[in-house]
Amino acid sequence: MSRKLTDKVIVITGASSGIGAATARLCYEAGMRVVCAARRTEMLEQVVEPMGVQGLAVACDVRDDQQVAALFEQTIRQFGRLDVIFANAGYGLNRRVDRTSNEQAHDLFETNFFGTLHCIRHGLPLLRQTEAGLRHILICSSAASDFGLPNYGLYAASKASQKSVAQAMRAELQRENFSVTSVHPVGTRTEFFQAAAVASGRPEMRNRTNTPMMFEQTAEQVAGKILKAIRRPKAEVWPQPLARFGLGLLVMFPGLCAFVMRRKAVTRQTGAKSVASSGPAESNP
Q1: pLDDT tens digits, residue range 26-84?
Q2: Which residue range is the domain that position 105 belongs to?
């Protein structure tokens, strides 16, 4: 049965652009009240401005536990309830594992993994307290959560950790009628690869993506799948079904996966057959 979303409240982190911003717009159009959180306040205000009283922009760095606590406090003060959390904030890192500094690795996990945990810990009690609430947690993982992608190994590890958290919580919270959904986009036409290149100190890689063009999607396409999952909860959202099938084969056949990953590593190191990114983007998935 499709759930009614009118006047339900969702908190979305990483909402200043890309998948987060697109999801915020669709949730607003569906009648939800939307709390958008991100560090880039000017872009955040542009997302929320058309929503009027149905929207709220909150400057928040998910790495900071106190800022995340304040985010949820503002949500309750403004709207008096919480129904859905979409832990979406994060970024990519385009570097070999052995060439990644401790500082880069720690910052990546502070944002992608611990930022998600901060949202869960502060938001979960409020989901419990909301009478007749939707009780839904969504976590933006990645299609790379099932294998170590060359030059994105630590990024893939951070996304695998998010998927594991979602899987565990899905079972742990089942008796309380919670829904926990992990979202697994493939290469999305957002600022993701440009941001990954900047974070990696490799600006020459800003126009390259590791996704074949036939699998690329827009942020709006991913957001549409997310909205459907809010209406009809499911365990995982894979916006690109064909990619899900192919990645499933790699998981089933580790030898094939190793062969494909070796080929991809060689391609990335030589710069051959790189595909230009199709547009601007965000720092998440």
Answers
A1: 999 999 999 999 999 999 999 999 999 999 999 999 999 999 999 999 999 999 999 99
A2: 9-276
| 91: annotated active-site residue | no
Q: What phi and psi values does residue 267 have, to the nearest 5 degrees?
A: -60, -45
SS (H, E, C) 259-270: HHHHHHHHHHHH
The C-alpha torsion from 132 through 114 and 153 to 205, rounded to 10°, is: 90
C-alpha dihedral, 57 to 63 to 65 to 68, nearest 10°: 20
DSSP bridge pairs for 183: 140, 237
Residue 38 to residues 87, 118, 200: CA-CA distances in angstroms? 11, 14, 21
Number of domains in the chain: 1
pLDDT at 214: 53
Cβ atoms 222, 169 nearer than 8 A: no
Of the residues 28, 91, 152, 155, only one is catalytic, namely: 155
Structure tokens at 49: 């401005």
| Measured distance CA(207)–CA(194) in Å, rounded | 6
Note whether residue 36 is domain-resident: yes
Q: How far apart are CA 54 and CA 241, in angstroms?
A: 33
In a domain, 216, yes or no: yes
Question: What's the pTM?
Answer: 0.82
Supply the CATH number for residue 171's domain: 3.40.50.720
* 284 assigned to some structural domain: no
